[in-house]
Write a structure and sequence with these properties.
Two copies of one chain form a homodimer. By secondary structure, chain A is of the alpha+beta class. In chain A, 27% of the residues lie in helices and 26% in strands. In chain A, strands 1, 2, 3, 4, 5, 6 and 7 form a seven-stranded mixed beta sheet that branches. In chain A, strands 8-9 form a two-stranded antiparallel ribbon. The first copy, chain A, starts with a helix and ends in a 7-residue tail after the last helix. The structure holds a DNA duplex.
Chain lengths: 241, 241
DNA sequence: TCAAAAGTGTTCCGAATACACCCATGC
DNA sequence: GCATGGGTGTATTCGGAACACTTTTGA
């Protein structure tokens, strides 16, 4: 490495030997949705520290991989899925957040379509399980903190961007959509008004299909129109629910 | 450090020797506002790499200080100010973003009241200068990227939280407030409607004072009611402009 | 008296709310 | 038929947009 000393004159008097002394990890808040419940995927740690505790899935970042890549890998190993919706939300770097040294962690949240996942245990996970976000266990490290921030971030973003659809199967009914939003935000919507509003946005494609095997009037199925959303957004349209 | 090997079994096969190999820095997008212009504070680097280039003020984090502390220090050394409004917005960690090795950087933006700052040069800054956000120079590293993300974050947050007041002096007129929002968001508001809306929120205290030394009808001065905002927020009020 | 910006009032329209009602299906 | 949830229509209210107007100051 060329002239490293010259490169790292810190205003803060960080001695050169201390520069490359940080660990870096990613932690993922993996959201799922089923039966009216918003859930997150947690693992039971099978390695010290906090062996036996529940924790967010995460891993150390390797020096030769990007953060997004590392976050994607975590999720891919856990669920077998690729190209999952995923966004960074906050970085946690308290001095004492990791017992073994200075490890900063970058928080990502991801949204998993209900039908698709296939969680599998891994070398540091004894088991893996979905938890209702209203009934969370104790968590290792500062993961409670991270998880809460992740939930708040999702609750905010879901109102201003059509990310909620990532949690539903490709085909869904308007009632399912409404229930999802109610579960995410914690309050109720008026059915007629919710429908009017969401349909007025012109972001849903009616598939011409209906539910099957239901013991009441079957609901129409819709899917989200990704292309239409991008087009509208370029014209200045702002999703807001 | 106790049994470090046991602590770092990575799913990702990060070799133990590679764990504590990251540099960590903070970079600050310091916003100011004057004469209808939104400005950011940039430094001219006096150290390699990118010596002579303009860059965001930032510094390496020392292993024994928290991120917020580091970000505050940067700003304090630059402006002499303490307890400045400051929020984290995104973390940038591409493998090749720093020529000397793997350095991830946490982006903060801060808002500085117009009257208060006192920028001073420093050991790695040859000079320091405010730039209109519409007329930015070339920047070192990936700072263009960071700066743009910072601007977008501010533009979003300013609509949903009363952060804009941090850019104005303690006492301000409604027109000044309106001009600030117009400069930040890049579009105009209707004067009567802007006033009605902002006053209806009941977040401003009329000081009973007026402007002086103006050659037209002097405007009333207001200040932001921090306590009232907190109270309203607890009742479920959501600021939105 | 004039220019300039502060500040107010009124009308209009569209969107959100509240709520009542009808429809299709399985049993 | 009835229970259950799907789906629609309408009257009302409220907030935002548009815009015209008055007020206060310095020069």
């Amino acid at each position: 490495m060329s002239q490293p000393n010259k490169y790292f004159i810190s205003e803060n008097n960080v001695p050169f030997n201390d520069v490359f002394q940080f660990g870096l990890s990613v932690d993922c808040v993996v959201f799922g949705y089923q039966e009216g419940q918003v859930r997150v995927l947690l693992i039971e740690r099978d390695a010290d520290p906090y062996k036996g505790s529940w924790a967010l899935p995460g891993d150390l970042v390797s020096p030769n991989e990007d953060l997004e890549f590392a976050a994607n890998s975590v999720l891919n190993k856990l669920t077998g899925l690729k190209d999952i919706f995923m966004e960074q939300f906050y970085t946690f770097g308290s001095v004492d957040r990791h017992p073994a040294g200075r490890v900063a962690t970058v928080g990502y949240y991801s949204l998993v379509k209900t039908n698709n996942y296939h969680p599998v245990a891994s070398s540091w996970a004894k088991s893996i399980q979905w938890f209702d976000i209203r009934e969370l266990p104790e968590l290792a490290f500062d993961h409670k903190n991270i998880l809460e921030k992740g939930i708040k971030t999702l609750q905010h973003r879901v109102r201003y961007r059509p990310v909620g659809f990532e949690l539903l199967p490709l085909k869904f009914t308007l009632s399912e959509l409404q229930e999802l939003y109610e579960a995410l935000l914690g309050y109720k919507f008026d059915k007629p008004n919710f429908r009017k509003k969401i349909l007025a946005m012109d972001l849903l494609i009616a598939l011409g299909e209906v539910q099957e095997n239901v013991w009441h009037r079957p609901a129409k199925l819709y899917k989200f129109d990704e292309g239409r959303y991008r087009a509208l957004r370029n014209e200045g349209f702002a999703f807001e629910l």
